[in-house]
Amino acid sequence: MRVTSKTREMETRAKVWITEDGKPVIGEGKVALLRAIDEEGSLRKACSKVGVSYKHAWLVLNKMSERLGEDVVMTTRGGKQQGTFLTDAGRKLIREYDISKQLLNDTMHDETFREDLGLHLSARNRIPAKVIEVEKGDLASRVKVSIEAAVLSSLITTEAVEKLDIKEGDEVFAVIKSTEVLIGKRAVKKD
Q1: 170 is in which domain, residue-wise?
Q2: 29 domain residue, yes or no
Q3: What total of structural domains would you count in the chain?
Q4: How far apart are CA 134 and CA 179, in angstroms?
Q5: Which of 5, 26, 152, 160 would bridge 30 by S-S if both were Cys, CB 3.0 to 4.6 A apart?
Q6: 4 within domain boundaries
Q7: Which helix (H) or strand (E) holds 79?
């Protein structure tokens, strides 16, 4: 989000970390290291690519594995298949980081979210709607909503469906952007 004043332009920024029991496991730098290992198949080459020492990289990888309780990389020595490679846990960490970062970015750049925080919104294209079907997937869910004249379909993350507690029959609003249909729900205070 950008805010422009008469003299300068300010921008809101945020960083993402994934934690385990409140302790950081991975952030942008560690994700870059894991991606480099995945691309290079070599810890030495990955270290050179991201600009960290070999020793530091091993300390970082060991700390990540320790916090997760499983290895994020595996090393094979000798032969044509030698190198350092990501484990399924390492790949899952990257996916979780990417999903979390995308969700944060989407939220920060979602004009309707900012409007709910009391910020000005130029587009006023909310349409009251009723959820008629929810198809949950592993990462994305399809939510069909009915408006007075038509039925719209929105593809949103399953995490968003669960966070908003969207169920068939719920009263929601559809927010139409140039490239997508978003789903919003008024917060209900729980006693």
Answers
A1: 122-184
A2: yes
A3: 2
A4: 21
A5: 26
A6: no
A7: none
Per-residue pLDDT, 91: 94
Cβ neighbour number for residue 3 with a 10 Å cutoff: 10
Phi-psi region of 116 (alpha: psi -120 to 50; beta: other; left: phi over 0): alpha
Tokens of 87: 């484990």
In angstroms, what CA-CA distances link 81 with 42, 47, 77?
11, 19, 8
What does pTM read for this prediction? Answer: 0.55
Q: Is 5 contained in some domain?
A: no
What pLDDT score was predicted for residue 118? 47
pLDDT for 164: 84
Which tokens sit at 34? 């894991």
The reply to whether 46 falls in a domain is yes
**Chunked in runs of 10, what are the mean pLDDT values of the chain (191 residues)?**
60 78 86 95 94 95 92 89 92 89 73 49 61 86 80 81 86 70 68 59
